[in-house]
Every structure is written in C-alpha cells, then in structure tokens.
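Catalogue entry: protein
Contents: sequence, fold tokens
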Amino acid sequence: MTTLIGRTRARAVDTLSLDATGTRNALSAALVTELAAALTDCAKDPDVRAVVLTHTGTTFCAGADLRDPPHPDALVGLLRQIVELPKPVVARVTGHVRAGGLGLLAACDITAAATTATFAFTEVRIGVAPAVISLPVVPRADPRALARYYLTGERFDAAEAVRLGLLTTTADDVDEALAPVLDGLRRSSPQGLAETKRLLTARVLETFDRDAAHLTALSAQLFASAQAREGMTAFLERREAAWVVA
C-alpha cells in the first residue's frame, strides 16, 4: 500500500513527512486523511513530546490538489487538528510553499524554513480566494503585508515570510536552527507544553469557531464557479487564464 506520510521518531519527537513528490505534496483528499490519522496517533501516544512536520522533494506543499481536492470541511478539520494538538507542531521547510501549504505552515506552532524557500498565496491566480486557510493565517500574520500577497499572488522569500509572521526563523541550515528548539521541547513537561500551547492558540481557535462555517461555504462556492474552472484549467494546461491582461 502506498503511503503519503512518512513517520520516524528520534528522542520523543515524531517527524511526519509529506511524501507525494509526484504532485509536489499537494493536499489531496488522501493526503489530508492520512496526515490527520498520523496526527491523531501522535496526540494519543504518551511517548511523543512534539511533532515535526516536513516534506520530501523540493516543495513543502503546492496547495490543494486540483485533480483530487479535499472537501473544505476536511481541510478545516486538519488545520484545526494541528492548532489543537496537545503537543507542539514544528514545521521544517526546505522547499517551496504555495496556497494551502501556507495554511499548514500557519497552523503550526513554530516554523523554520531554509533561506532558499519561496512562498505565494496563488489562489487569486486561479479564480478563488485563500478562504479556509485564512483561519490560521489571518490571526498570525501582519495584515498590511498579507493584503499585498493575498491580492497579487506574488512570490516572496523566507525573510519576508518571517516579517509577515508566517515563519519563526529562516536559516541556511534548518536542522541547525531547529536543534535548540527541539532540545527545549524535550526538556519541557508534557502538561506544561499542552497548557502553554492552549494559551497561545486561543485567539486562533476563536477564529475557527467564528468563521469556519462561512469560509468553508465560500471555498466550495468559489471552486464551483466558472472563473475557477477557467483558472484551474489554465493552470493544468500551463497557459494564461482568460482574464490575464498582457
């Protein structure tokens, strides 16, 4: 059976790796289901102190899989699961992050990326909006800078992602940067980590409680629209969408 999520353990830290390089680790229905199951296992396991979320290949996550997209409710559930997990979730990024992948990043507690990583909210380029991923992104990002990248779909680098609040740190050697972070988590008590995380994520969860139903409906509506069909078709055919002004 093909697995889309790799899992290893080292000194009480479980590493979950997105491993669907053929689709650039896009969020398919199957990948979302498998990642959610792995996170559930980590939450229940008393031997797991923290979780590292990383990837194989050159892309952390390319966003939604346009050929097999997850239902918006499933994506909301996954993002909330990361935020609510009683153990810290640390993102380790050495590749590129697009659209829904930034939702995964924002849901994590601590995020580190290589200086060569790039980021983009590309939803507007295919006729939709970053609806569901706004649940963790908006509470954690600088609103003025976020407006620029939400509206233009421009690519930005890791240093800018730190300034936006989407990354904790960036470094040439991500593992070296994360070493003291993971050491600190290993030295912390499970109860202390869980309760401290609860304090830190309270505002993010308020956004889920208030806006999840509306943004889920909006996402479904937009993906079913004529403009989204044109945008997704253009993307898959590697051509400009009909609305692009030359």
